[in-house]
Amino acid sequence: MANSEQQVQQRMQQLQSDIGNLQSWLSKAQNQASELQQKLRSNEQKISNLSKAIKQNQQGSKKTADLLARLQRQSSHFQDALAEQEQQLSSQLKSQYQQGQKRPGNVLLSLDNPSTLARNMAYYQYLNQASAEQMATYRQTLNGLALVQQEQADLTLELQLGAKQLLAQQQNLKQAKTELSSNLKQLNNQQASKAQRLTTAKADQMQVQELLEQIQVAVAKANMQIAGSPMGEAKGRLPWPLKGTVLNRFGVSQSTYPLSQQGWLIAAPEGSDVMAVHGGQVVFSDWLKGYGLVIIVDHGDGFLSLYGRNQALYLSVGDSATAQQLIASSGKSGGNSQAGLYFSLRQKGKPLNPKQWLQ
After folding, report:
1. Which residues contact 116 (CB under 8 A, 6 or more apart)?
2. Torsions phi, psi for 294 (to 5 deg)
3. CATH code for 2-32+207-356?
4. Distance between CA atoms of residues 113 and 110, nearest Å
5. C-alpha pair distances (Å), 308 with each of 19, 65, 68, 327, 342
6. Which terminus of the chain faces fewer neighbouring Cβ atoms within 10 Å, N or C?
7. Cβ–Cβ contacts within 10 Å for residue 291, how many?
8. Could you give the residue ranges of the DSSP H alpha helices within 102-242?
9. What is the pLDDT of residue 108?
10. What percent of the chain clears pLDDT 70, i.e. is strictly above it?
């Protein structure tokens, strides 16, 4: 069993190393792009990182707020218990005061009947013991309340700091989007003609095709076993990566969407949640010229799913993804004007028609 786990770990390390080399090759290739393209890449990666940080901040704040609400309920419970215990202690102290009018020595001198004497002495001892026990319980409740209130104070401060950080992140994101908008205008002016755009699109597509082929080689070499049911058995039953309208026809080249014929371009509002269509492992999570921020999931048996044009990527290479897990948010990265998601399915490098695979 240990050897098996060690082999899996070694294969994972090998896969990550091979994918890392591919990303290095890709970075060098993309560094040869124009200065404007490099700025585009930098801006969109910054937006992705900020969006991811904001998402994590919001999720963390929600967990903190939920915990704070739970502590508030505990605090109320402690306060109710204290009120009840204070009432009981008050009653006990009153009885002790009344009994105290007859101190044990006085009780011995004033009572002639032995049975009455024994009963009064037992009652006196009982009052003392009950009072001590209730005081101990009261102190324990007070300590519990103090601990809860301290934790509440710490969490409240954490929420305040998180809100302050979130505001700064959102301001940075707004600034990054303004810079991106300016960069896109310059880029579009540079590539004014349709012929230029088509030539650029073909070059981008060839680069992505080469990358996908190399990823297939790395995945086959690693021979990683993907947990769960095989993807081939889910044909026609896969969930959509997000809700939206398909803008293109699979396999048909369209000048409006020159990079989309090997998959679907699904229109959706910017920032929509993008889900993995099947369980697998992330083998690519980076920016690609023309496709923007892309995440690729290996589903085993030669199946890959590709999600492009994203505004933010939430998983990294080596991360596992379960079916319908949030992996990205849609956008129009890569210099595109249409918000949505580019979605592509492949088996051993061959593009598959999503219509035949999705529900």
Report:
1. none
2. -120, 140
3. 2.70.70.10
4. 9
5. 18, 34, 38, 11, 5
6. N
7. 25
8. 104-110, 114-190, 194-222
9. 47
10. 76
Q: What is the mean pLDDT of residues 344-354?
A: 92
Nearest to 234 by CA among 277, 174, 171, 292: 277
Extents of the domains making up the chain: 2-32+207-356, 66-176
The answer to whether the CB of 92 falls within 8 A of the CB of 132 is no
Structure tokens at 189: 């002016």
Which phi and psi angles does 134 have, rounded to 5°? Answer: -70, -35
Residue 41 and residue 143 in contact, taking contact as beta carbons nearer than 8 Å: no
Return the SS3 of 270.
coil
DSSP string, 232-247: GGGTT-BPPSS--EE-
Residues 155 and 159: their CA atoms lie apart, in Å, by: 6
Q: Token pair for residue 118? A: 């024994």
Contact 291, 324 (CB under 8 A): no
Please report, as a single letter, which amino acid is at residue 284. F
